[in-house]
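Before relying on records like the one below, remember that each one covers exactly one chain. Contacts with other chains, cofactors or solvent are not represented anywhere in the record.
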Amino acid sequence: MLTVAYCRVSTEEQAAEGWSIAGQAAKLRAYADLRDLGPVTVIEDPGRSGKDTNRPGLQQLLQAVERGHVSSVLIWRLDRLSRNLGDLILLADTFGKAGVGLYSFTEQIDLASATGRMFYNILGAFAQFYREQLAENVTMGMGAAVRQGKWINRPKTGYDLIDGDLVPNELAPVVQRIFRLRAEGISHRGIEAATGIKYSTVMAILKSRIYRGEVQHRDEWFPGKHEALVSAEQFEAAQRGYVAKRRQSADVLSGRVRCGLCGKAATVQYNQDRKLLYRCHHRGSGCSQPSRSASGLLRAALLGLRLIGGEEELQEAIRRQLRKATQDRTEPPGGGQRPAESLASLNTKRQKLLDLYYGEKITADYFAEQELVLSQSIEAVRSEAAVAEEVIVVTGELSRRFEEVAAVLRDLDLDRLWTEATDKERRVLIHELVERIAFFPDHLEVTVAGAPAINVALSEVGLKESRTVGVGGGT
């Protein structure tokens, strides 16, 4: 039977406190000599966090305990095993069932008595509190730094991090060129060839708001202290550039047309009369919907803009639909509990479960089983609440965007503007106000920014209904 000294240290702790693996092992060997526990086998977990039990050394120790090879386990301090109270309780129970003695050099713990077990739980609670407080402090510190405009991660391409500040470097002009090329409609691959910057890096650069002078914490962006490499207008222009895997054309609708049956992007082609058509990218290899003329689809887009700007009944119907989407997420179905109420109820059950375990009225196995069920339920409620909150935020943004677009279109003489605009100005107008045009065998759907899709009959825009309705090669 083995006497095992389990030694763990994280890099931060070793640097700050000098709790090296060798130092712990030496003290534990001396401790074993004093208690006549025999030769000591050291199992190490260097540079590993104590937030959970997923550590190679600890798993090796547990396997040895399970096989009956261990008589005693020595630790420098309780939080070397874990900083999580639930894990500490389960580990103590595992050692107790296997007849393994657990000895802590610092706390002088004896798990053979009720007092020792109580002390173990109290110390475990403090270990968990320390870990959670440390995580909160780190998160709080990072959040505060970001709100002050500081960048807290590795520097992005085009910047160096000097004394905690982002400073443009020799690649800054290359980054600026990437944004210019994208705004001109050059593909990611084309930009890679022109600049020598890898395709994946090009995509990451174009998506990051750091280049317009902002800094990120989690999913939020804040004004930064560093020098922006592009203006807000240049950044937005790059977002309207060429769409990956889609053929770019001079047509104003390019990038906005999709097949309604299979959802794939539509590409451009010319028929024998040199008229521009949009066809499904999967036409002939999975989707049987025929092509549609670009002129008919453009008429549908302009009709959708006129309806949003001029039909008050349609506008009010859209507002009702957006309000209903928010209401559906804020009011639980069937008069059920709200997420906050459900979480409170589940946390109460968890506390009762802990009380039963502390009172030795349930076994560790039952505790672990029920704790897992409760944890999964709590996580499910939290996920549902997060989704609901996201829907509310998105719907609110859609409502705001819809009112902005509707106000613009109400005051806009669309027909006159369209007649007098250049092709480039028309493209900008469509890309700013029309999100999508989907074509089906019997109708079209036009989605204006911030509004649900509007059905347009083919006859309204001079198109004919198709007999082909199949997807996947059917008809």
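Confidence is low (pLDDT under 50) at residues 242-247, 468-475.
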